[in-house]
């Protein structure tokens, strides 16, 4: 019977893990190598090996209503997309209000986690920690790994012939903190993800020239979507997810590409993804297109080779006198304290059931939180993962057989290839994934029941944003404030922007718009039949 749980890391995943252990009557001990909660959102102007790192100017890409702990909305006046310091403030308040800090041992590094000799019988783990140079080994009944996946930079130096002769400076975006040293410099940014675009735009204000090099391109989206509402509140809805699942793929692909190109034609800006119909995570950057328009940033294909001073691109063009090359080329998964075979049990690929449980384990007493990536935000995802894990640990929920889990992983890999393409990350469709986890623990909202019993709420749940509160609306772990939080989510969204009110506030009305769309042809037909 599991009682004690070791949690590695006190970022947003670790905090969710502590809270969910407590909800299930478990005894968590969280080890955090840093001196504060928040993980990568705790800004530091120094990088630290094995820890995520952000630059001074990072803002969130998920909006506040879509990225909260499901029973802990942000204050009304918080901006919709927050500066990292604001998010860190929220995370700390969450930890304090939920009384989680006393379960965390700060400045304590987990150096090794291995199965106890009695593992087959007990499922227990030996956790070795190090604090102020002193090592300690403690036995735990179970482990939740919440150590993040933006800590080990992927620096593909070998893929670039001549880079060893290049005489300028060369580093990974993990090391980037701010623009000060780049005034008047010529900078090449490799990659076209969120960090690459943020850095290129920021540097373009003071560097002499910024070039971005991309192999496969990206869709560049704005944080403000239709009528200026936060993109995720408009796009991540149950109705949109339903449409995507029933429309023939050529129709949904066409709609997707049309939508992505609605602000500007990506072909004309050199940004067009090679396979534009893949549902890879888009990049959110409101300024990049205008920086390209003003000529401060230019987009180029892959670098073919470096010389001592320049970069030669695949199309034969050359960027001369390069001062800096910044590799914004993503991260490796790495769990140096665990045997590789636990997470990567086949062909050196991450093999985890629902991105959480190693399927080949004799006892399900180890799980990973926060590894899965989707279009949705991390915080609600890790909350649901941690709730599920805690229930598996306490036997209130059981896992399928090893074969069923492996089959599920294989099926998911095939689907992922179709939707997201080849990639290192564990990508998934947000609502489908959240509903699956929710159904494991009885927390998936019952939509037909809601339509029968509370139609006002049902309309907002189905046609409105699939906000985190939906997963604490019913079932175990239910939060009594969830209904009200859903019905007032647009008020909190408009509060920080409607700071000068001259007329009544407008909110999106997807259901009524749909009704109008369906009724209009009917009305037209009736008129035509009546008069002709
Ligand atoms: P982390 O925040 O990395 O925390 C892991 C913690 O584990 C750290 O505190 C670390 O010190 C600790 N740790 C690691 N190893 C050990 C060890 N051996 N012993 C003890 N402690 C250890 N997500 C969103 O949802 N929305 C966004 O807008 C968004 N923007 C992002 C922008 C950037 C630039 C980056 C890099 C990521 C962004 N993300 C965003 C994703 C981000 O990963 C998640 O939001 C989230 O912070 C992940 O939390 P985590 O707790 O899993 O990992």
Automatic annotation (TrEMBL):
<dbReference type="GO" id="GO:0004499">
    <property type="term" value="F:N,N-dimethylaniline monooxygenase activity"/>
</dbReference>
<dbReference type="InterPro" id="IPR036188">
    <property type="entry name" value="FAD/NAD-bd_sf"/>
</dbReference>
<keyword id="KW-1133">Transmembrane helix</keyword>
<keyword id="KW-0492">Microsome</keyword>
<keyword id="KW-0285">Flavoprotein</keyword>
<keyword id="KW-0521">NADP</keyword>
<dbReference type="InterPro" id="IPR000960">
    <property type="entry name" value="Flavin_mOase"/>
</dbReference>
<dbReference type="InterPro" id="IPR002255">
    <property type="entry name" value="Flavin_mOase_3"/>
</dbReference>
<dbReference type="GO" id="GO:0005789">
    <property type="term" value="C:endoplasmic reticulum membrane"/>
</dbReference>
<dbReference type="GO" id="GO:0050660">
    <property type="term" value="F:flavin adenine dinucleotide binding"/>
</dbReference>
<keyword id="KW-0812">Transmembrane</keyword>
<dbReference type="InterPro" id="IPR020946">
    <property type="entry name" value="Flavin_mOase-like"/>
</dbReference>
<dbReference type="InterPro" id="IPR050346">
    <property type="entry name" value="FMO-like"/>
</dbReference>
<keyword id="KW-0560">Oxidoreductase</keyword>
<keyword id="KW-0274">FAD</keyword>
<dbReference type="Pfam" id="PF00743">
    <property type="entry name" value="FMO-like"/>
</dbReference>
<comment type="similarity">
    <text>Belongs to the FMO family.</text>
</comment>
<keyword id="KW-0256">Endoplasmic reticulum</keyword>
<keyword id="KW-0503">Monooxygenase</keyword>
<protein>
    <recommendedName>
        <fullName>Flavin-containing monooxygenase</fullName>
        <ecNumber>1.-.-.-</ecNumber>
    </recommendedName>
</protein>
<keyword id="KW-0472">Membrane</keyword>
<dbReference type="GO" id="GO:0050661">
    <property type="term" value="F:NADP binding"/>
</dbReference>
């Amino acid at each position: 019977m599991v009682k004690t749980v070791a949690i590695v890391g006190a970022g947003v995943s670790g905090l969710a893990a502590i809270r969910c252990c407590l909800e299930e009557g478990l005894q968590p001990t969280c080890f955090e190598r840093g001196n504060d909660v928040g993980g990568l959102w705790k800004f530091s102007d120094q990088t630290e090996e094995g820890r995520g790192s952000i630059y001074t100017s990072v803002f969130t890409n998920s909006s506040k209503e879509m990225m909260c702990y499901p029973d802990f909305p942000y204050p009304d006046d918080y901006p919709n997309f927050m500066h990292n310091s604001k998010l860190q403030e929220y995370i700390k308040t969450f930890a304090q209000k939920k009384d989680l800090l006393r379960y965390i041992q700060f400045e304590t590094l987990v150096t090794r986690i291995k199965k106890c000799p009695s593992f087959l019988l007990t499922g227990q783990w030996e956790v070795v920690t190090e604090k102020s140079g002193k090592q300690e080994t403690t036995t735990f009944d179970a482990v939740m790994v919440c150590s993040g996946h933006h800590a080990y930079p992927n620096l593909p130096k070998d893929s670039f012939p001549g880079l060893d002769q290049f005489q300028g400076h060369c580093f990974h975006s993990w090391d980037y903190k701010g623009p000060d040293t780049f005034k008047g410099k010529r900078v090449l940014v490799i990659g076209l993800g969120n960090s690459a675009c943020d850095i290129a735009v920021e540097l373009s204000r003071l560097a002499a020239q910024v070039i971005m090099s991309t192999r496969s391109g990206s869709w560049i989206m704005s944080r403000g979507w239709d009528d200026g509402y936060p993109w995720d509140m408009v796009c991540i809805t149950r109705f949109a997810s339903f449409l995507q699942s029933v429309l023939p793929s050529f129709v949904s692909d066409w709609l997707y590409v049309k939508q992505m190109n609605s602000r500007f034609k990506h072909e004309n800006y050199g940004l067009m993804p090679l396979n534009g119909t893949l549902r890879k995570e888009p990049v959110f950057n409101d300024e990049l297109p205008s920086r390209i328009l003003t000529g401060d940033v230019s987009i180029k294909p892959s670098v073919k080779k470096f010389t001592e001073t320049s970069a030669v691109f695949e199309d034969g063009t050359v960027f001369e006198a390069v001062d800096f090359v910044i590799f914004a080329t993503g991260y490796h998964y790495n769990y140096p304290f665990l045997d590789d075979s636990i997470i990567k049990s086949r062909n050196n690929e991450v093999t985890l059931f629902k991105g959480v449980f190693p399927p080949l384990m004799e006892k399900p007493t180890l799980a990973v939180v926060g590894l899965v990536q989707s279009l949705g935000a991390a915080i609600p995802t890790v909350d649901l993962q941690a709730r599920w894990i805690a229930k598996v640990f306490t036997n209130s929920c059981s896992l399928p057989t090893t074969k069923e889990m492996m089959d599920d992983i294989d099926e998911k890999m095939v689907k992922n290839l179709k939707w997201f393409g080849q990639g290192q990350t564990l990508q998934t469709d947000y609502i489908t994934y959240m509903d699956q986890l929710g159904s494991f623990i009885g927390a998936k909202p019952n939509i037909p029941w809601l339509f029968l019993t509370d139609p006002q709420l049902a309309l907002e749940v189905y046609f409105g944003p699939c906000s985190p509160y939906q997963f604490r609306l019913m079932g175990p772990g239910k939060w009594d404030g969830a209904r009200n939080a859903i019905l007032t989510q647009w008020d909190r969204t408009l509060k920080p922007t409607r700071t000068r009110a001259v007329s009544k506030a407008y909110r999106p009305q997807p259901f009524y718009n749909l009704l109008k769309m369906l009724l209009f042809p009917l009305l037209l037909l009736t008129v035509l039949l009546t008069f002709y």
